[in-house]
Amino acid sequence: MNVTAFRVCKTAALKRKKIPYIMQWLLIFLICFSARSALADPNEDEAKNNITIFTRILDRLLDGYDNRLRPGLGDSTTEVFTNIYVTSFGPVSDTDMEYTIDVFFRQKWKDERLKFKGPMNILRLNNLMASKIWTPDTFFHNGKKSIAHNMTMPNKLLRIQDDGTLLYTMRLTVQAECPMHLEDFPMDAHSCPLKFGSYAYTTAEVTYKWTLNASDSVEVAPDGSRLNQYDLLGQTIGQETAKSSTGEYTVMTAHFHLKRKIGYFVIQTYLPCIMTVILSQVSFWLNRESVPARTVFGRDLVGGAACRVSAIPSTHDPRDCDKPEEQRHGVTTVLTMTTLSISARNSLPKVAYATAMDWFIAVCYAFVFSALIEFATVNYFTKRGWAWDGKSIVNDKRSASSL
């Protein structure tokens, strides 16, 4: 009995010793947990809460949303506000009558189905959300080829405001037609249009408007011009209505005004033509009986063989050396003008009318050709004059000998 009581007392004593030990560990655990909670970043918790709220808002917006139907279907017309920021303009091809432009194309409209309430006013999203909602079916009327950039991801931006207003931006490279009238080439100026609008929706369903005023709706970056032969003078905007068998459609237009730089053509065409005309006329300012001078001039200009007067017999008339060199001179200038005319046309489309440069080259060609005709005429009458003089001298000698 005493042994049993002793064991019970001993067990009770051990339990009394273990209880403070467990309480100590429990107290340490509570202190560490409280310290961790106190040191935790409040922004991290807020970020987690925002992510959760974002997800709930997007899920609620897309719940029952049909992206096949435009906003205000059967009730009102959808207004799409647009503006363009040009990052790169050019090059311009005269031969194909087209130009290339790289833009940030922005569209803004309101969709009542996408209203939301939350701690934020704007949802900033990417292209993944854009594929799940209705977007305007905008296309470029005069575009030959359009590219939507997808490296490294589709270059698209979507922002949804709490009142249902959406901003949709994409980066595009458009190769568009630019009708040109080249009658004044190379002193010509052109207006290259960029036309866009809805492909399927008529004006009764979707209308387009410019977001800003005329000077700001289409903006070109300060370093955005990539033109070697043109100066970009400015741009204007407008709005048209296109009628077809399927209805009337809104067409937005932006015109880029270009003025050609004439410096290249002055160096490559105008100066060579002027110098060729001058050279074709210089020989007629020399004395027609100064054979060595006229011969050297013709030889140096054309690069023909020299007419060596010292190698000609004394019985031969030295004026005979003049003919080949002058003929080569005139023929070469005519060929030079022909070459310049062909090279000037290589950079232009094959239009059926004459340009200002064509008329200039034609006048130069007429001067050069007239110089060749003038030489032939002068040479003909000069030779006839020499023959008559020689015949009269021979007759005089015969008359004197007979006497």
Architecture overview:
The structure is a single chain. By secondary structure, this protein is of the alpha+beta class. Among the domains are: 78-260, Acetylcholine Binding Protein, Chain: A (Distorted Sandwich), CATH 2.70.170.10; 264-304 and 327-381, Methane Monooxygenase Hydroxylase, Chain G, domain 1 (Up-down Bundle). Helices cover 41% and strands 27% of the residues. It has seven helices and twelve strands. The strands form two sheets. Strands 1, 2, 3, 5, 6, 7, 9 and 10 form an eight-stranded mixed β-sheet that branches. Strands 4-8-12-11 form a four-stranded antiparallel β-sheet, with no helix packed on it. Helix 4 (263-282) runs parallel beside helix 7. The longest helix has 47 residues, at 356-402. Residues 5-16 and 291-328 have low confidence and may be disordered.
What is the third-level CATH name, the topology of the domain at 78-260?
Acetylcholine Binding Protein, Chain: A
User: What is the C-alpha radius of gyration, as a whole number of Å?
Assistant: 45 Å
CATH class of the domain at 78-260: Mainly Beta
Q: Quick one: CATH superfamily of the domain at 78-260? A: Neurotransmitter-gated ion-channel ligand-binding domain
Largest sheet: 8 strands, mixed
| CATH-defined architecture of the domain at 78-260 | Distorted Sandwich
Please bin the fraction of helical residues: 40-55%
Could you tell me the number of beta strands? Answer: 12
Distance between the termini: 198 Å
Q: Mean pLDDT, rounded to whole units? A: 79
Backbone shape: elongated
- Contiguous uncertain segments of 5+ residues: 5-16, 291-328
Helix tally equals 7
Transmembrane segments: 359-381
Domain Neurotransmitter-gated ion-channel ligand-binding: 55-262
Domain Neurotransmitter-gated ion-channel transmembrane: 269-298, 330-384
GO molecular function, one term: extracellular ligand-gated monoatomic ion channel activity
